Amino acid sequence: MVKEKLKLAVLDMNNNQPNQGLRCIKEIVGLFNKEVDFTVFNVRAKGELPDTSYDIYISSGGPGSPLDEGTWRKPYVELMQELWDINKNSYQKKHAFFICYSFQLMCHYFKLGELKMRKSTSFGILRVHKTKIGQKDILLEGLNDPFYAVDSRDWQLVQPRLKVFKEHGASILSLEKIRTHVELERAIMAVRFSKEFVGTQFHPEADPVSMESYFALEKNKQVVINNFGEDKYDEMMDRMDDSDKLAMTYNTILPKFITNAITTIEQPILS
Description:
Blueprint: E1 6-12, H1 21-30, E2 36-42, H2 43-46, E3 56-59, H3 73-89, E4 95-99, H4 101-109, E5 114-130, E6 147-158, H5 162-168, E7 171-176, E8 188-192, E9 197-200, H6 208-216, H7 218-228, H8 230-240, H9 246-266
Parallel strand pairs: 1-2, 1-3, 3-4, 4-9
Antiparallel strand pairs: 5-6, 5-7, 7-8, 8-9
Helix pairs in contact: 7-8
């Protein structure tokens, strides 16, 4: 008897803007093609959304304001609330991962802290520090502390409302790099909303091989240099092919999330 595959929904939040992230997500999900079938839903541009019959949901990053009140937003958060409620009331759990834009949106929805624009865009392959809870979380096991990840954002979550975190059973897993030369709040970089819901401000799906090829192209190189300077470009390219930096993050976080979701869903129900 052939075992029925699990269903995975990829929620494309890129609003039809060119990006590398969606391709990377599909490549990682494709590694699990023996266990899962996946479908992509163009949420913001076409208003496409899955129903609650899927087992695993991965919601991508995307451009623009996470406070955008597009027509897609209400159905999106209603779906997430429905999945959240299913997890509270059913033994068959729904697993969800939120990346960057989606992470910001969900943190705002759960009122976990203050979501505000940065003074300047954060961009590059940057250090991310684990919290004490993050050091024990299955998602970050095997990563160095600090570890490195692609960061590309104009918004940030700061000033965590710890009482709200406690009410939801949520926890902070990582914070942005320590900046000793400036007095700025450290943004929250990863949150576990529950056992099944988790998200990152950074991009764990970023593939170093394709990213290096992409940014080696002269037109893409010049975009980075014009916006962030040659030093930032050189630093990014230097960190791109370091095996204990971006490659480690790419090979760890999303694959662990999917593996853990599959294992948890397929575990027999204990009587």
